Amino acid sequence: MTIRVLICDELPVIGDGLRTLLDAVPDLDVIGTTDNGMEAIVLVRTKRPDVIVTDLSLRTIDGLEMIRRLGKEETRPNIVVFTRSDTDKTVSDVLHAGASCLLGKDASPQELVTAIRAAAAGRTMLAPDIAHRLVTWFREQPDTPESAPHPEVTELTPREREVTQMVARGMSTEEVARELTIGVATVRTHLYRVRTKLGVRDRAQLVSLAYQSGLM
């Protein structure tokens, strides 16, 4: 399957360089480049990319605001953030906005290609140093005797709980469908109902709530 990619970067030289790099990968098809956050939203609506590779510095609106607005679109692409900034606040903002993958601009070409494929499959990928910091932060949190279950979790059907647990373990929509021998559209319907019942916007919030509630 060919993955359609849109590249967003404030510096045209970087955008053009990424296009040259990704055009050489057989399963990737770069459908456009832009340095403008608003134009990127228009391109998403008209060209339907599977994955956006974006910096956070863009014209008109920044990358973070663009990601938030795309989260409200009926059909939204998966997002790979490719940026120089890797502060804790940036990491938190990017993940809460709904990005799938986060890499620093010191990432290798192969790491970027791997992140694009992971995003297209609905998986999450973080730069190794960012992942290490998140694990360190998690380990430093005080232990709690028992997770406080969220009342909404009890409203999930057995199948919805099963799908939620599989997604929280990092499985893509397609992998869940194969594991349960059901259609991808059926998995997406389950996830839509789960998000509605639990009041979460995206996969990242769903995974977080699954662990906080004791569902995992």
TrEMBL record:
Q: Where do the Response regulatory domain residues begin and end?
A: 4-120
Question: What are the residue boundaries of the HTH luxR-type domain, all occurrences included?
Answer: 149-214
**Which UniProt key words apply to this protein?**
DNA-binding, Phosphoprotein, Transcription, Transcription regulation
Task: Enumerate the Pfam families for this protein.
Answer: GerE (PF00196), Response_reg (PF00072)
Q: Which residues carry this modification: 4-aspartylphosphate?
A: 55
List the CDD domains.
Answer: LuxR_C_like, REC_NarL-like
Q: Which InterPro entries match?
A: CheY-like_superfamily, NreC/VraR/RcsB-like_REC, Sig_transdc_resp-reg_C-effctor, Sig_transdc_resp-reg_receiver, Tscrpt_reg_LuxR_C, WalR-like
Question: In terms of domain of life, where is this protein from?
Answer: Bacteria
Q: What is this protein called?
A: Response regulator transcription factor
Q: Which organism is it from?
A: Streptomyces roseicoloratus
